[in-house]
Amino acid sequence: MRGRIVLAVIFLAAFILLFRVTILAGEFDAVVTAAQFEKASETHTTLRAFFRRMPKGGDLHTHLSGAVYAERFIAWAAQEGLCVDLENVVLAKPQCDRAGARPLSDAMREQKLYDRLVNAFSMRDFLPTPAVPTGHDEFFAVFDRFGAVSGSRLVDMTVDQLKLYDGENVQYVEFMVSSWCPNDREKFSSAVAGASEDAAKLAALEASGLAECVAGKRNDLAAALGKISAALGCEADNTQAGCRVTFRYIVQIYRDNTPDEVFIQTATAAALIRAEPRLVGLNLVGPEDYLVARRDYTRQMEIVRFLAKDVPVALHAGELWLGLVPPPDLTFHIRQPSRSLAPGASATASRSPSSATRRACSRRCARGPSWSRST
Asked: I want to staple 88 with a disulfide (CB 3.0 to 4.6 A). Which of 120, 122, 144, 306 is the partner?
């Protein structure tokens, strides 16, 4: 009897020991990682290397043109033979004869001009001036400065960012891009102007060729995706840099427009998302504190609710704060969309533009002073 008890005790002790070893083995990776993190925290360089190697789930709110380094835009604009004016705005070729315009290729031979353009196309070394007194204003102004080159570089920008994300061990990303039909703008505007109700506006758009616009944009996207795959070499070898990152696009709508223009862009975006699974949602972009955005906010939420009730919607939240806008504007900009939009919609919590500016700076600073995100 005593022998059986001793044997039972031995078995129990062995079981407890095995259980504790199993628990410790499961926590081993976490313990080692925590120790490495503590060690890496001693210097900025090692901490950056630690975070670069760390596996990351996804980046769900990436302004594609704002994520590209300014140096890339300078090189692409020089290749295209574009020009830049004295205010550091990239000009299309037909505008290169404007007073003060210079070939952007000059920057590839002139360091001072090159540095000036890097600063103009990014938040690098930003200092307030009477003309641009805040980082808020500079952040939004930067997008227009390189728009003439970024507008035609969807493939290059996507490839550039996928390679970068791959090197940082990111698994998934959603890029925000514009996708509308500028050649149909006047036709669509005239169509909706004569209608007072949203249902009538949508019917007028559909009668004016909305489906054809959407089909054309979907074909454009398919062609771009084919070029992206070819540039990365993913079909031949999925281990190439960039191929391991799954990516999708979010269609962006410019909020600082007339209600009819927002209606047209939202209708186009919603139709595209229904037709193309690689477009996963829509989002309103632009300063939420601007005059038009504040004045028409409620109307814009009505438009999104009517046109996008069956597609994913992501909206900025917490973008406004006391001092930036009058106090009443702080009382409903989050509550209203969360109550009025479809169940599938979401308010993406961020503190853009202030956090967006800091986030851009932190990415640039993490790579050293010679590198700069465009925003």
From this structure: 120
